[in-house]
Amino acid sequence: MKEILLNSENYQPGLSIDCVIFGFHDNQLKVLLIKTSYDNKWSLPGGFVPIKEDIDTAAVTVLNDRTGMQGIFLRQFATFGSIKRKDPNFDSTVLDYFEIPKDAGQWFTQRFVTIGYYALVDFLKAIPQKEDNHEIIEWIDHKEVPELILDHKEILDKALHTLRIELNLMPIGYNLLPEKFTIPELQKLYETILDKKLDRRNFLRKITHIGILKKLDEKKSNVAHKAPNLYTFDKDKYEEVLKNGLNQGW
Amino acid sequence: MKEILLNSENYQPGLSIDCVIFGFHDNQLKVLLIKTSYDNKWSLPGGFVPIKEDIDTAAVTVLNDRTGMQGIFLRQFATFGSIKRKDPNFDSTVLDYFEIPKDAGQWFTQRFVTIGYYALVDFLKAIPQKEDNHEIIEWIDHKEVPELILDHKEILDKALHTLRIELNLMPIGYNLLPEKFTIPELQKLYETILDKKLDRRNFLRKITHIGILKKLDEKKSNVAHKAPNLYTFDKDKYEEVLKNGLNQGW
C-alpha cells in the first residue's frame, strides 16, 4: 500500500474492504484484530480495492496478506455505507506514519463504503502478519473484543450473526477444526458459535444425518478413560452439501 | 437525476444501487424491469448514491420512485464489483438523451461497484413509475426475463437464490399476498418461489407450527364448491419471527 499512491487512478474511490477473520481455539471463537501505534483503538484488517481488481480478489489479497494462508473460506456478507463512515479523528500524522504524500491526504477524508467479508481459518495454520513493526495483530476472543474504530463493531456483530444463520444452511467445521476431530469437539464448535448448549444426542443425530462425517479407525489419544472416536469430513460430500444447502435448521 | 450534476461532488463515485423488485400475481413471481429507448436491452431499476445519503436510504429512494409505494420490505443481499462492470457500449448519445453535460461523460466510463437490494411488494398496490416517456417499465415473469444489460441477470439470479434460502430462515408472504388469503394461495407462493411442488399436508403442518397465521371467520367467495377458509397474518407474531428467525428449514 505504501508503494502505490492512494488516489482514484490506482484505487476504486471511496470503497474499502474489511475482513472478519474467525478462528477456533481453546473452545473460543477468536477474531483477528489489528492495532496501529497512531490509534488507540483496534480495527478489522482491511484494504482498498485496486482499480484493476475485482472486489472479491481484493478481499482474498487482504486475507492472504494477513494470515499467510491461501485458499481460505471467504464470504461476502454485507456492505456498510452510512454517511458517518468517515474518520472523524483523521489527522495528518497518519500520512507521515504511512509515508503518504500530503497531497494524497484527501483520500482519507471522503466517506468510505466498505464491503464486509468473513473468513473461517484453521487457527493453528494461520500466522498473523504485521504490515510493519509498529503494528500489533492478535487473535482475540469474540467475547472480549475491545473498542473498535468507526463501525467495525457493527461489522463484526453482523458477521457473527451471518455465521450463526449460515449454520442452518450449510455445514461448518472444515475450515475451523483440525483434520481429525471428535464429535464432542465438533459439538463444542457449534455451541461456541451459537453461544448456547446443544443436546448431545440431538446433535449427534442431526450431524450424522447430514452425511458429511467419516468415522476413522482411530481413537483420540491422551484421554484418560474411554477414548472417543476420531472423525474426519468426507470432503466430496461436504462440498456437495455446501453447494446445495442443508435441508433443515438446527 | 437530471437536475443534479453527475459527479463525485454530488454522488459517491463508482458506486450504484440496483433493485430486484419482486411481486406475486397470477401464480407468477414477477420482477420489475426497465427498458430505455437508447438501449435494446432491459435492466434492473437502479440509481446512484448521493454523497450525503446512506446507501440504504438511496435504495429506499429508488424503490419508492419506481413503485410509488412507501414502507416496502427491502434487503441488501450482495455487492457486485467485477472489473468488467463498465458499460462496454457506452456511447455519448446517452448524455444527450439524459441531457447531461458532455464534461460529466467520464462519470459513465468508470467501473461501477453496485449494491444489490431485493424488495417484496404487493403487486396490486405497486404502480410502476416511468422516469420519462421514453422509458418502458414492466412486470415480467421471472421465468421469462429477456436479455439484461451488464451483469444484471447474475444480480437477479442471486436475489432469487437469496430469497429461496431466506424461506428457510424467515416467514414470507406478508409483503407479497393480499391481506386475506387461503392456505392454498400461501402454498402456491412458496411453490412459485422454490419452483417445486410441496406436499399439502406437510406444508400445512409446518406453516401452522410457525404460529404466524390467524384463521378468519370468513370463507373465500367466488368459489363453486367447498370454499376454503381465509387467513391473515398475525402481524406481531410475524414481526417477532422475522426478527428471531425460524428454527427449522423447509
Can you tag this structure with a few keywords?
homodimer; 250 residues; alpha+beta; Nucleoside Triphosphate Pyrophosphohydrolase; Arc Repressor Mutant, subunit A; 2 domains; 7-stranded mixed sheet; two-stranded antiparallel ribbon; 9 strands; elongated
**Number of helical segments of chain A?**
6
Judged by helices, strands and strand pairing, the structural class of chain A is: alpha+beta
Q: What is the domain total for the residues of chain A?
A: 2
CATH superfamily of the largest domain in chain A: Nucleoside Triphosphate Pyrophosphohydrolase
* Rough outline of chain A: elongated
Low-confidence stretches of chain A: none
Helix and strand pattern of chain A = EEEEHEHEEHHHEEH
Biggest interchain interface, per-side counts: A-B, 31 and 31 residues
- The residue-averaged pLDDT of chain A reads 88
Q: Predict the CATH topology of the largest domain in chain A.
A: Nucleoside Triphosphate Pyrophosphohydrolase
N-end to C-end Cα span of chain A: 43 Å
The total beta strand count of chain A reads 9
Helix percentage of chain A: 25-40%
* CATH class division of the largest domain in chain A: Alpha Beta
Second rung of CATH, namely the architecture of the largest domain in chain A = Alpha-Beta Complex
The share of residues in extended strands of chain A comes to: 25-35%
Largest sheet of chain A, described in full? 7 strands, mixed
